[in-house]
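Final report, closing paragraph on structural work. Over the funding period we assembled a curated collection of sequence-structure pairs, and we close with a single example.
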Amino acid sequence: MKTRKRWVILLLALLFIVGMTVFIVAERAGAPSSEDTLEPTEQIEESDNTEEAGFDKTQYSVDQPGSLWWIVNRDRPLPDGYTPPDLIVPSVRLRLGGGEEQMQFSQQARPSLEAMFEAAADDGVELVFGSGYRSEGLQAQFYNSYAARDGQAAADRYSARPGTSEHQTGLAFDVTSPSGACHLEICFEGLPEGQWVQDNAHRYGFIIRYLEGKEAITGYQYEPWHLRYVGDELATELHENGQTMEKFFDLTE
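Its predicted structure, as stored:
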């Protein structure tokens, strides 16, 4: 009787082992391998997408007045008498009264401007909107006074001739400090306001337009206070690579 029980137990154990073996083999046969998880055609498509993942320089025109990436310089003047159609006084601290022409800025860039000033304030830095839009007539007043004081050659290094100023686009402005220290001077870069702008302006779509050491490309001396709105994507690209708009868009000789 005991012998019969042992045989029954052994038979059941054998059947269990055989059943588990069959189950494991079947599971392994049905599971996809790591090589089968991606079809060859899918791998090719991923490679193609990687190649096409570069920066799209055609999103905005560099020639169209009012375009976000419109490039204005000595060799690329504005249309005669151009006035931006969307000028508005931003809700930030202004250097002059709100009725002054220079206190206007482009409506399309206003939200980013105000967000940047708010972010700076959160970091304990107060920015001041020094000078925004300038008509061709106002720019002529500035340029002529500088040329009379310092000579035309010197004025050309730091002031745009009438009809060629970025300020006339409504997309550029000069940032300054509440104290007025280093206003429109290179020493602005050493102030807390200047340092904050250098580190953070690109996060809000602004670039320091006239970079240090790039005078031969931009035509102007280093101006750490002159900011130009180009949108977050391009601003980050230029900031990370230390490039000017002229160089990035292949407009240099």
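Residues 2-51 form one domain. Residues 205 and 233 are 7 Å apart (CA to CA). We thank the funder for supporting this effort.
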